[in-house]
Amino acid sequence: MNKVKFFALVSCVFLIFLAACGSNENTSIKLGEVTRSLFYAPQYVALEKGFFEEEGLDVELQTTWGGDKTMTALLSDGIDVALVGSETSIYVYAQDSNDYAVNFAQLTQTDGTFLVSKEAKPDFEWEDLKDSNFLGQRKGGMPQMVGEFVLKKHNIDPHNDLNLSQNIDFANIPSAFASGDYEYVQLFEPTASVFEKEGNGHVIASFGEESGHVPYTVFMAKESYMAENEENIKAFTKAIYKAQKWVDETNAAEIAEVIQPYFEDVDLDILTSSIDRYKGQGSFATDPILDEEEWNNLKNIMEEAGELPVEDVPYEDLVNTEVAEEVINN
């Protein structure tokens, strides 16, 4: 073999090697979370334990801070997948969108807020809330809608029986409660536990326990993205399901250690107790399927709050369970 043929052969082998290596590169997915929350523990587990990489995905996480901003990022292709309240997909649907936001994997299945009082209330009754100064959540968001649903369940009209304030941005609610003359507030973990530890508040009830199962936080993507990236969506869902099973089978202390990099300013004992509280009330979904009963509960909560924008919100259009069912069955 002459030198020319030899070098040509070597070059071909080298190019084939590069092509083979290139074909094994992970697929990139841009994921936007509506806020940074301990409530989303299984998502951080999937990232930290490498479950996405095992499925051939390189997931780039960004916090998009708010439902409106998250959906804007999703619809404008700033992100591929959104972790956000499933009510946002209904709001998009009501705008006659040609490209729906489709819910394909559920992460949390209860409300994640707790009723926190400034003073200790060992004998608390829901009736005690009447005529109180109550710091509420953003109008139209899941925390506020679930809060109103629970209050009405206990014969309390949130807009007539409370001195309700809703003019504080989500990120500033804890500090506003601590420094203001509010008597009650809805808070997520770990903030609720931090308030207890520092003596700034007392957890006296759970909105998650009171409201039942609801698709509170869900992974969604545009209908067009799902159609064009079926394998990516399936791989993503498989990674989430792995994380859900791991969280369900693992104690709170070990989960806290795994996800602590996402909450560097929170003490490990607070992370542990917060996760234990969420696990105890079944907040973390144990599989990614969003069933129709949960969807109907969501619609009832929205309708009760006067926020359901259209009469018919078809489950079969806005929810895709085929991917999750295939992942679980296999």
TrEMBL record:
Signal peptide location: 1-22
Cellular location(s): Periplasm
UniProt keyword annotations, A-Z: Signal
Coiled coil region boundaries: none
Chief subcellular location: periplasm
A Pfam short name: NMT1_2
Lineage top rank: taxon: Bacteria
PROSITE patterns per the UniProt record, alphabetical: PROKAR_LIPOPROTEIN (PS51257)
Family affiliation: Belongs to the bacterial solute-binding protein SsuA/TauA family.
Protein name per its UniProtKB record: ABC transporter substrate-binding protein
